[in-house]
Amino acid sequence: xxxxxRTAFRLIALCLLGYLGGLAAHLIGLPLPxxxxxxxxxxxxxxxxxxxxxxxxxxxxxxxxxxxAIIGTTIGAQITWEIVGNLPRMLPSILALTLFVPLxxxxxxxxxRRIGGYDRATAFYAGAPGGLIDSIVSGEAAGADVRILxxxxxxxxxxxxxxxxxxxxxxxGHPVGSSAGMSMSGxxxxxxxxxxxxxxxxLGLLIFRRLHIPASQLIGPLICxxxxxxxxxxxxxxxxxxxxxxxxxxGTSLGTRFIGVEWGRLLRATWLSALSVAVMLAxxxxxxxxxxxxxxxxxxxxxxxxxxxxxxxxxxxxxxLNTNPAVVTMHHLYRIVLTVLCxxxxxxxGWFDTPKAGA
Length: 359
Known about the structure:
Number of strands: 0
Strand content: under 5%
Shape: globular
Distance between the termini: 47 Å
Number of helices: 15
Radius of gyration: 20 Å
Structural class: mainly alpha
Largest sheet: none
């Protein structure tokens, strides 16, 4: 408990830095400003001032989970009976995702193995298009270089989060998301329904935190919110500034991932990640354009659905653009589950294991 004041001060200072970065990004018109601005502000500070935080500093996961849960409730509130009725029409895009996962895994393996020069285990698990924790754990067991693996997996999410809003802004011809004045909550929402938002978020966390499902801190509140909304038991509406605040916390937590990373290693990993993500986005765009006429979904919804970022981050992108975040979240949950199943299948067979010394 003696370290609590210091820990609390660090957390407050980081969040304030993240907010200032988000505010600056908003003022200059960057897409998804509060998440990207906070991410870059914290990452640059951690890189330029390496001694400002302990090398082993970890952003409090419980604190971050609450804000992820609020995002989940906001997404769940957008699930309507019309969306539920259209779920069968998602089958073509789900089948396309089933092709997307092994195809991008194979392409990424070639990028990291042949261009990056990584060993077989590191190249394979660094190329997983999802399942960040599972890929790191499985890679470590297979003898991969865990430090490189962790950096590449974190960069996959960060590069997607950075490139996708910029790409969509170029596509639309104007900044997208809250930087463009868009509301994430569908209008000028006050505080009258904030208790329902917080209640659904906490309820979802309490119920689902012990279940071993991907992104349970997002999916649990999402399900609770959807049930409450569809049944008419509650109105779930969060003010725009609340969702922007959640962006700041999530972006700040992502920025702390760069603490202690060597610049040389980071620069090499970044260009490899940029190449990998560009290829994955191109594959995703091709598949999205192919199945869009069969699903009835707008192309931008499917493009975001195929982008290989984290569930929470991609949900925020969709929420910011008001592009059917519930459908996007369902696709990403499936992508991660399928990736984890594929990693488990390969790990059990040891196809990419590094031989033990003396074996």
